[in-house]
Design a protein that fits this description.
Elements: H1 2-26, E1 39-44, E2 47-53, H2 62-69, E3 78-83, H3 95-102, E4 106-111, H4 121-128, E5 132-135, H5 139-145, H6 147-155, E6 159-167, E7 171-174, H7 185-196, E8 200-204, H8 205-211, E9 226-230, E10 251-255, H9 261-270, E11 273-276, H10 287-296, E12 301-304, H11 308-316, E13 322-328, E14 335-337, E15 353-361, E16 364-371
Parallel strand pairs: 3-4, 4-5, 6-12, 6-13, 8-9, 8-12, 9-10, 10-11
Antiparallel strand pairs: 1-2, 1-3, 7-14, 13-16, 15-16
The protein binds NADP nicotinamide-adenine-dinucleotide phosphate.
The site of NADP nicotinamide-adenine-dinucleotide phosphate has 30 residues, from strand 6, strand 7, strand 8, helix 8 and helix 11.
Amino acid sequence: MMKSKVARTSVLKDEFYMKAALRLARKGEGRTSPNPMVGAVIVRGSRIVGQGYHRAFGDKHAETRAIESASGDLRGTTFYITLEPCSHFGKTPPCVDRILEIKPSRVVVGSADPNPRVSGKSIRSLRRHGIEVTTGILEKECRALNEVFFKYMTTGYPFVTVKYAQTLDGRIATRSGHSRWISSPPSLTFAHRLRSLHDSILVGSETILKDDPELTCRLVKGRNPRRVIVDSSLKIPLSSKVLLDQDRAKTMIFTTTHGQREKLKILGDRGVDIRVVEGDHHGRLVLRKLLKALAQEGISSILVEGGSRIITSFLKEGLADRLVVITAPKILGKGIEAVGDLGIDKLDRAIRLDIKKIIRNGDDIVLDARIKKGPPAHGKKKR
Ligand SMILES: NC(=O)c1ccc[n+]([C@@H]2O[C@H](COP(=O)([O-])OP(=O)(O)OC[C@H]3O[C@@H](n4cnc5c(N)ncnc54)[C@H](OP(=O)(O)O)[C@@H]3O)[C@@H](O)[C@H]2O)c1
């Protein structure tokens, strides 16, 4: 009885410091990609003597920052890290070696690194050197923090967020295609923030034709993601805003057309990145292949911003991981539907969501959810 109480107290203590490491890790949000966000805390007794986080891609890792923030002898301390330390030379030397140098008596790891070059290696190395390692403390939270990194590392595909602003009756534009603006100004700022947290933004050709968006993060601080346009027949006009200022944000067009040489040349001269790829039997771009190509260029996350046909394709093909829907208190009646035909006849085949957050933003309601993969729990066959 007494023993289990002691064990529980020690887990609570570990969770307390891991929460502190998680808070630190989040400070790197939007700047570490394609690296993960990582936080580290060094504790002696019940006092934090060092702390750090990975601030930006290419910058020092959290473990090194925590060690450098501390002074004096760190032998016998407990080292808390949200993600298993790296064991290979990348832009910086292996963090596991830095930890071994300071000789803590214990290392507490939130989640193992999904990177096949690391996975479990550092934990084994620490143990081999006589350091006690505790794993799995707030593992769910630590994995959720880096859901993008985990998806990218384990599947070789980017993490896909589908986001749109709709009316209460599920329209993303009027029947004439007018959509500016469905949501309120605070939601626009929110949408720009969401952009800044992704490596790229993707839209369909019709959205460029109807809205002529800039697809930049003008309302918030942060980098402009790569703009990706899906345009099989290369029909968007040369005057489109996304094709103008390539110094502000880079644009990539995926197309299936080899024709229009002159247009291709002008776009090339402007610095627009054109990818001519094979279409499917309808001549449409194969989104899965496009995602693979983007992942191979280091793009680990994509924000799909519409329009309706693109959203529908991503959902129908099971390519989306996260759904962010901004619902404005407006009703349009007939108009462009947010999601078109998914070919679903039976309710148990509906796309199911795991709601993470619902917030009120200005006049709007923002729903942030993850798309559940696999068959519904009640649909699973019993053995
Ligand atoms: N409220 C919002 O959040 C929001 C956001 C964005 C857009 N919108 C509105 O949405 C409307 C545009 O939506 P939309 O459905 O007409 O067009 P869209 O989704 O923007 O673009 C669809 C086009 O993309 C191309 N495409 C290529 N491969 C595709 C694939 N695998 N799957 C789907 N499309 C593919 C097709 O043209 P090609 O065959 O020529 O390539 C297709 O016609 C506009 O009125 C805009 O204002 C609203």
